[in-house]
Design goal:
GO cellular component, one term: plasma membrane
Shape: globular
Organism: Actinopolymorpha cephalotaxi
Number of helices: 22
Order of helices and strands: HHHHHHHHHHHHHHHHHHHHHH
Structural class: mainly alpha
Family: Belongs to the CitM (TC 2.A.11) transporter family.
Largest sheet: none
Membrane topology: Multi-pass membrane protein
Distance between the termini: 39 Å
Radius of gyration: 21 Å
Number of strands: 0
GO molecular function, one term: arsenite transmembrane transporter activity
Length: 432
Amino acid sequence: MTLTAVLAVGIFVIAYVFIATEKVNRVTAALAGAGLMALAGIVDAHSAFFAEETGVEWNVIFLLLGMMIIVSILKQTGLFQFLAIWAAKRARGRPYRLMVMLLLITAVLSPFLDNVTTVLLIAPVTVLVCRRLGLPVAPYLIAEALVSNIAGTATLIGDPPNIIIGTRAGLSFNDFLFNLAPIVVVLVGVFLLMCRWLFRDTLRRRPQHAEDLMDLDEREAITDPKMLVRCLVVLSAVVVAFALHSVFHLEPSIVALLGAGVMVVVSGTSSQQFLEEVEWSTLVFFMGLFVLVGGLVRTGVIEWLGEAAISAVGGEYLLAATALLFGSAVLGAFVDNIPYVATMVPIVQGVVDAAPDPEQGTALWWAFALGADLGGNATAVAASANVVVLGIAARNGERISFWEFTKYGAIVTVVTVSLAWPYVWLRYFAFG
């Protein structure tokens, strides 16, 4: 490892320690780390802002921006208050039943929207309903981020890393659905059962709040029905365009920005109104984090780690799949899984191409996708949805620390990745 690579690792580790310990604001830590990468000559303007493999992932940034604007406008119609009261009344104020209901909605949406969009839509509802019932918000938001990462694994568009893998490997929406959806259904079910234990200390019913809520009429929460109808038509078109983005040859970020623009027009909302809800600190944090990881990519650190792990398995493809599954979960826990997957894809492609058995070679892609997506739950910065949820919580005065998220996410990652391994073995290797 070169001196420049060692310096890049040092800067990354220091920035990560500050982010994890929260000694300084996470945005400050990420930007300071990115600045040090530039000051040390590890990254330059081109590699930080324009290079595909080492730069800021602008598709993610503008996808987030577009969906934040859409959510901001929808919030003004009273839709989220309506959904909050409706969900709470159906759950009859019971905390665990409410959590299951919200998680099932999240799990159904995540495979067809990307998981960031899903949490952007469901988190505001969650904050409102928890406050109505006098329940702590953090457990519900954490659980929603975790289940969105699990459920999003099922399809090509459910999790951004899958889009990268599918594009490089030539895998279709149906390929992902057929190969990953069966295990994802099992993992979501296991996770719902785990939540009863993970959040047992916070799932206590407040009878008085529940009784007061049952007297509310959710229809009164809608402030502008005509505006709501127009916005829902636009949102439906955005969802369809997400699902068919490969047919239309439009990046999800373009779909989100177009949808945001159309919704601004049909709603007649002023710029001050729709921009005030945008999580600017979250977007800036992502930019800094992408530059930090880009420094590791540019100096060859991540590639070196990946090659070392894969070369150790030789021609043993079950061992290679195991290394990809568990190794991606571990490595992806410390860097956002989008740049991690973008870096590792060429390495995995080389191993797949060398496989004598095409089916077992393709199985490496599924092990890689499972490891990267499920490993996104391991820490608060391992997946985009996690970072967005922390930003929404902070904006609503509900602080979720790095370690509060990570203590739950690490347990869920260990359980889900451990359950995914027998699936990979039985489906692709046991009877080969």
